[in-house]
Structures are given as C-alpha cells and as structure tokens.
Design brief:
Blueprint: E1 7-8, E2 12-16, H1 22-29, H2 32-37, H3 46-64, E3 68-73, E4 79-86, E5 95-100, H4 109-123, E6 129-134, H5 139-147, E7 151-157, E8 164-171
Antiparallel strand pairs: 1-2, 2-3, 3-4, 4-5, 6-8, 7-8
Helix pairs in contact: 1-3
Length: about 170
C-alpha cells in the first residue's frame, strides 16, 4: 500500500483526487477552457469520470506516489480545480499541470497550488526538475509558468501526429 500526501497553503487544501471526485472531474474536463486548452479526454458521464480516475489518476498514485490533486478552498470547502505532477506519455520527466473552473481563475489559486506542489516535488518526491506543456494560444498558462520559474525551451510533439506544444522546464532548487 502506498501513502497519499495532502498539502496545504494559507488558503488551500491540496489532496489526491479520489473516485468521490468524479462529478467534479466530469464538470472540469468538459468545461470550455479545458476542451480548448487541454483537449477532449472522452469523459462524457460521471461513470466515465470514475473510470478515468481509476485508470489514469489512481494508477499513477499507486505507481509513483504522486499525481493529480484536488485544489480546495479552505474557507468553504469549495472545489476549485486540479493541480498535479503527471507522468505523461511522450514526455521525459514529470509534468506540472493545472486547470481550474473559469469562475475560480485569476484569483491566485493556480499559483498558490503550483508553488506548493513544486516544493513537494523536491522535498517529498525527490524530483530535481519539472516540465510543463501548453498550447501556444494559452497565454495565461504561459504567464503562470513563467511566474512559477519555468523557462520555455522548445516546441515539442507529445505523441506522433499531435499538435506542437510549448515545453517549459524548471530546475528544482
């Protein structure tokens, strides 16, 4: 059995995604901004979301001890979005990713959650570098990555025949 860590910041609780989060995951991965900036994960029902969590999210936690985390507002327990450390096919190394429901964007939650996961990546999981990918049109993601200390390195294709993505890298100090 593996141990799942939960992290906190001044305003947030950052805990592993579980099957119980399926209704929120269904909503998030079908939000207009997710579909535009990340793509269709083929999660068309809460049941699909449960399968997605079990096959992708829980499986990575079992394999690596880290993965996709729910970002929750401490004040009222509201689910805001996700931030995670991902082992993505087609990328060498661990990818930092984030997505929030549109009504929670622009309030610093992404920065706060990502900074805490960057700290955990080094201190708790022994990582020395993180990567991040984004589409060229996602300017807000690019700005956040730069603010987090990531540097654009090149355009890359994650899987054969896919669109080119911007690859950012950050050494963990």
């Amino acid at each position: 059995m593996f141990s799942l860590l939960t992290f906190e910041t001044e305003r947030l609780i950052i805990r592993p995604v579980t099957i119980e989060d399926a209704p929120f995951i269904y909503q998030l991965v079908n939000s207009p901004k997710w579909l535009q900036n990340i793509g269709d994960r083929k999660v068309y029902s809460v049941t699909d979301a449960e399968r997605y969590i079990a096959s992708k999210i829980t499986a990575q936690f079992e394999r690596l001890g880290f993965g996709n985390y729910m970002v929750i507002k401490k004040e009222d327990g509201k689910l805001l979005g996700n931030c995670g450390l991902y082992d993505r096919p087609g990328l060498e190394g661990v990818d930092l990713g984030f997505a929030f429901l549109e009504e929670h964007e622009g309030q610093g939650y992404g920065f706060e959650a990502a900074i805490r996961l960057k700290q955990a990546a080094k201190a708790d999981f022994g990582l020395i570098q993180l990567q991040a990918i984004t589409i060229k049109s996602n300017i807000s993601s690019q700005r956040l990555l730069t603010k987090l200390g990531f540097t654009f390195t090149k355009m890359t294709m994650v899987e054969e025949g896919s669109d080119l993505l911007m690859l950012y890298v950050c050494a963990l100090e």
